[in-house]
Design a protein that fits this description.
The chain is of the alpha/beta class and 279 residues long. It contains ten helices and ten strands. Strands 1-2-4-5-6-7-8-9 form an eight-stranded mixed barrel, surrounded by four helices. The chain starts with a helix and ends with a helix. The chain binds ligand C2E and calcium ion (CA) (3 copies). One calcium ion (CA) binds next to helix 8. This is EAL domain-containing protein. It comes from Geopseudomonas aromaticivorans.
């Protein structure tokens, strides 16, 4: 048993070391990427359930790496959050998304807000509100054409401050969405105190909507509760016509997913919106 224990320990430390060194490497490479701001934003349209028209797009961060191809935000954002590197990156995302939607507006192609994912680390920083104001001012984007997506994690970290900040943002006029809804562990009672416009049903529920009655029940529950609270509901990760039909039957307001469109570079989004406008 002792021998076995030692082997386990050895296995554990080796893997831990690997993980630590992988994180160190990412951290160093992120530093270079930040210096040259070699990130991209891709956009995924959101489609109104009834009309089939685009009602907005979500900005999704991409890091094209010379040797390793695209590195997933799921891999590098947690590292960037730990090191604080998320701040300059998130700042760039906010500025770029605002500038892009202003360009669309100038060409008559803006279809609703661009949504930006905001990390709790950035959101809870002292000057976040000022950051949002500056992004709007310098791009000339009307506040209602920007939406911020936050997760329940901001409430777990500091609920009182988060609620205060959301009210301040509401005063500015930006849209507010609660992202990954249903995946956190916090209580539902806070929902009525949040000045948000929308909840986004996480892909993990949508994925098994048809095969797992429990996911169907949770999804129906989220939609019904959200509507009673006067919130819009967007489903993410819609991949099949069966999922879309279920969501439509249950009054989901909008869809986002590969069934309609994959995330695409800004230049492609312009073309996509141009074709939509011609319909
Ligand atoms: P999220 O906010 O839940 O974004 C939705 C993710 O689902 C995106 O992954 C999107 O590409 C993917 N997706 C959309 N439709 C489908 C579908 O039909 N099927 C499948 N399989 N996937 C679909 P992505 O772009 O890899 O982003 C992953 C996560 O990284 C995001 O999850 C978000 O939490 C985070 N993230 C992305 N960009 C940013 C950013 O600019 N700032 C911050 N803080 N986080 C970001
Ligand atoms: Ca999101
Ligand atoms: Ca999600
Ligand atoms: Ca399930």
């Amino acid at each position: 048993a002792k021998q076995h224990g030692r082997n386990n320990y050895q296995w554990y430390t080796e893997h831990l070391n690997q993980e630590v060194s992988e994180r160190m490497t990412l951290r160093n490479e992120l530093q270079k990427a930040i210096a040259g701001m070699s990130f991209e934003l891709h956009y995924q349209p959101q489609i109104d359930t009834r009309s089939g028209l685009v009602i907005g797009s979500e900005a999704l961060l991409r890091w094209p790496h010379a040797e390793r191809g695209m590195i997933s935000p799921l891999r590098f954002i947690p590292v960037a959050e730990d090191t604080g590197q998320i701040i300059p990156i998130s700042q760039w995302v906010l500025d770029t998304a605002c500038r892009h939607n202003r360009q669309l507006l100038d060409r008559g192609l803006a279809r609703g807000a661009i949504s930006v994912n905001i990390s709790a680390v950035h959101f809870l920083r002292s000057n976040f509100i000022e950051t949002v104001r500056r992004a709007l001012d310098s791009s000339g984007l009307p506040a209602n054409l920007l939406e911020l997506e936050i997760t329940e994690s901001v409430l777990l970290k500091n609920a009182e401050r988060a609620i205060y900040l959301l009210h301040e943002l509401k005063k500015i006029g930006v849209g507010l969405a609660l992202d990954d809804f249903g995946t956190g562990y916090s209580s539902l009672s806070y929902l009525k105190d949040l000045p948000i416009d929308k909840v986004k049903i996480d892909r993990s529920f949508v994925q098994e909507l048809i095969s797992d009655p429990r996911d169907a029940a949770i999804t129906q529950g989220i939609i019904s509760m959200a509507h009673h609270l006067d919130l819009k509901v967007v489903a993410e990760g819609v991949e099949t016509p069966e999922q879309a039909a279920f969501l439509e039957r249950n009054q989901c307001d909008a869809f986002q997913g590969f069934l309609y469109a994959r995330p695409m570079p800004f230049a492609e989004l312009e073309g996509y919106l141009q074709r939509q406008a011609a319909l």
